[in-house]
Amino acid sequence: MLHKIIGLTVRDVRFPTSLEQHGSDSMHTDPDYSAGYVVIYTDCGLNGFGLTFTLGKGTEIVVCAVEALAGLVVGKSLEAIVSDFRGFYRLLTSDSQMRWLGPEKGVIHLATAAVLNAVWDLWARAEGKPLWKLLVDLDPKQIISCIDFRYITDALSEDEALDILMKAQEDKQQREEEMLKEGYPAYTTSCAWLNYPDQQLEQLCTDALKSGWTKFKVKVGADLKDDIRRCRLIRKMIGPENTLMIDANQRWDVAEAISWVSSLAEFKPLWIEEPTSPDDILGHAAISKALAPLGIGVATGEQCHNRVMFKQFLQASALQFVQIDSCRLGSVNENLAVLLMAHKFQVPVCPHAGGVGLCELVQHLILFDYICVSASLTNRMCEYVDHLHEHFTSPVVIHDARYMPPKDPGYSCEMLESSVQRHRYPEGDVWKQFKNQ
Amino acid sequence: MLHKIIGLTVRDVRFPTSLEQHGSDSMHTDPDYSAGYVVIYTDCGLNGFGLTFTLGKGTEIVVCAVEALAGLVVGKSLEAIVSDFRGFYRLLTSDSQMRWLGPEKGVIHLATAAVLNAVWDLWARAEGKPLWKLLVDLDPKQIISCIDFRYITDALSEDEALDILMKAQEDKQQREEEMLKEGYPAYTTSCAWLNYPDQQLEQLCTDALKSGWTKFKVKVGADLKDDIRRCRLIRKMIGPENTLMIDANQRWDVAEAISWVSSLAEFKPLWIEEPTSPDDILGHAAISKALAPLGIGVATGEQCHNRVMFKQFLQASALQFVQIDSCRLGSVNENLAVLLMAHKFQVPVCPHAGGVGLCELVQHLILFDYICVSASLTNRMCEYVDHLHEHFTSPVVIHDARYMPPKDPGYSCEMLESSVQRHRYPEGDVWKQFKNQ
């Protein structure tokens, strides 16, 4: 069967998370977790679902960008796409006129992610497998053929990439079984959003410890005294054995980052996340160097906009934890390139998740990373946030603070149609209700 | 008078330049020079005009982004904006929800440029001066107050920036008079677009030499044999004394760039422009290092998306010519930061221009750079392309291959309303005509 794509729709879906300060940090004080939500329709009745994550305002711009890309997708068959996925990736990212709007960054790249996520979902459904399993079963050569190596060959050649995948083939069956049995380790960001009062933080932390969580992330960066108080509180609650990470969401300049984080060193954070501009490779390198003697690593990636940037972060030793994002990079294709580069540079990947749908998507990528690339769990864990999973047809399953591998075919980002309808912006019932208040 | 902003409109204006291969290069084979064109209206009848440049498809996405920003502009007064221009810049670039779409890159930043260009135009008109003269006459402290130093203080502090401006105050009167009399040196890209046949190239080159041009840029990167033939042809025509630059528009990976340009070294190009990804700071640094012994510099910037990237290009010695763009960076505000950083690192600024409106806009910035920042013309020149100037109310004036300082109040980017109407996409007469063919 050919699975000819005969239509593509995109909708602006927003959740009013800012009402309860979920997701608040030092730079994003009132996010409404949202998505540009894509459905592609085929002539044989099978559909593909994809999304890119946004924070509310401006989602309509991403929707507009998806509509601009739709013409490059509709009319093609799934089989034609996946038989030259690198070519299709480049068709979307290197359109002679549209690449000026990026290239491969910002709105146009978020739109590319949404569209390609839907294509990957469709492929996995057509194969009757969850996406991670589709990837695990693909021939390494076909994996390579999905990746656009343009601009990264100075760090990773196709041959090197193939070699990495071939080496991991040997024991992959064993790791797949391990994952199916035990799941992939996770950490939680749900306890300590910046604007949560201390009492709420304590309560959430208590509950999380009871549920078996051992790794916790705290938002910092707005006020040093507050940060010291909150870090002290959470470190006291979780004890010295558990893991603490801190996240500044790009709040500081380079010198300020070094001095601020040094003031929090007594709380033994494993990493400082996004200490400064996501574009500042050399700044992150300087911060990494300064904090290394304190035993604090630098993590970044949720706003690292493409493989060329990740390449340089790795080349410059500017991060010690690679945080891939399933919706900012150009879908699975570009994330594969980053996973392989991270392996070559021997830097662990700890994906960014949360928002809406990010956990559902990225779990597939990190499962593939463990089974077929890194073959290691050392210093590795995937972010988890306990919000909005109820809107998905195949929500994540967490057991004992671990992601259990999804079993349903696809990329796990199909939303309940009723949720989509209620949260469409501005016409859904949820938003009409605010308008009428 | 307060100049309260009471409205903002944005239109999608496109010129069918691809029909004659104007603007064609190795990555952008068929650009239709276009703009997101903004008008802001005040309660006292004075309007401000601004634009951002695009290549055709996708301009509607930029229009959508401008509309999303409009709410942050309408209702404010010009005086309130310019009394805290840094704050206003940050309001547009750091909106808690919208910054996720960038931050400060891609579509959302192009839209920011269009809006802020219109605000600067309004300010210059309100002062009755061309923009360059407004800048030249501003107190250095007020110039500094327009710049967002976030993320660049490790390269340039406010005090250092002020110091640079103060030092240049002394002889600025003399340089202003020099510019008014002699103009700012330019080079031409009009002769050698990639898809022009050799005969056309020869004819254009002959004409340009007659008109006094001495500096020429050739597009390269698609086919090495073609490049050798074209470079040989143009070098023969312009002779050994004139200046040749080559431009690959991001076509190569790092190793390929070094080998390809080495093959063209015999034609003595002053620079290779955009040899690889605009995001690849470390790649440009490697290319710079490899080509230095051949006497070839690296130029880049037209797709360098913000001051954080320029900062690193300078820190890493990754370019020898800084090519600012008036419509990709966050308008005058962010370009001021780049001019000052370039001066500190002693790298000459040679602006990107061409497209539609880019020459009109950027001439103001480079005049300010000479009069108030660099005080030098060594290795400096501004790009010029002879297209589409007829659509502006105050088109550039070129005498003897030099930009003559504009005299009309404003930022020179007001289009003839008749041109806007005819070229509106898709409803303008020019585009209806193609539809009917």
Automatic annotation (TrEMBL), chains A, B:
<protein>
    <recommendedName>
        <fullName>Mitochondrial enolase superfamily member 1</fullName>
        <ecNumber>4.2.1.68</ecNumber>
    </recommendedName>
</protein>
<dbReference type="GO" id="GO:0009063">
    <property type="term" value="P:amino acid catabolic process"/>
</dbReference>
<dbReference type="GO" id="GO:0050023">
    <property type="term" value="F:L-fuconate dehydratase activity"/>
</dbReference>
<dbReference type="InterPro" id="IPR029017">
    <property type="entry name" value="Enolase-like_N"/>
</dbReference>
<dbReference type="InterPro" id="IPR046945">
    <property type="entry name" value="RHMD-like"/>
</dbReference>
<dbReference type="InterPro" id="IPR013342">
    <property type="entry name" value="Mandelate_racemase_C"/>
</dbReference>
<dbReference type="Pfam" id="PF02746">
    <property type="entry name" value="MR_MLE_N"/>
</dbReference>
<keyword id="KW-0456">Lyase</keyword>
<dbReference type="GO" id="GO:0000287">
    <property type="term" value="F:magnesium ion binding"/>
</dbReference>
<dbReference type="InterPro" id="IPR034610">
    <property type="entry name" value="L-fuconate_dehydratase"/>
</dbReference>
<keyword id="KW-0460">Magnesium</keyword>
<dbReference type="InterPro" id="IPR013341">
    <property type="entry name" value="Mandelate_racemase_N_dom"/>
</dbReference>
<feature type="domain" description="Mandelate racemase/muconate lactonizing enzyme C-terminal">
    <location>
        <begin position="198"/>
        <end position="294"/>
    </location>
</feature>
<keyword id="KW-0479">Metal-binding</keyword>
<dbReference type="Pfam" id="PF13378">
    <property type="entry name" value="MR_MLE_C"/>
</dbReference>
<dbReference type="InterPro" id="IPR018110">
    <property type="entry name" value="Mandel_Rmase/mucon_lact_enz_CS"/>
</dbReference>
<comment type="similarity">
    <text>Belongs to the mandelate racemase/muconate lactonizing enzyme family. ENOSF1 subfamily.</text>
</comment>
<dbReference type="InterPro" id="IPR029065">
    <property type="entry name" value="Enolase_C-like"/>
</dbReference>
<dbReference type="GO" id="GO:0016052">
    <property type="term" value="P:carbohydrate catabolic process"/>
</dbReference>
<dbReference type="InterPro" id="IPR036849">
    <property type="entry name" value="Enolase-like_C_sf"/>
</dbReference>
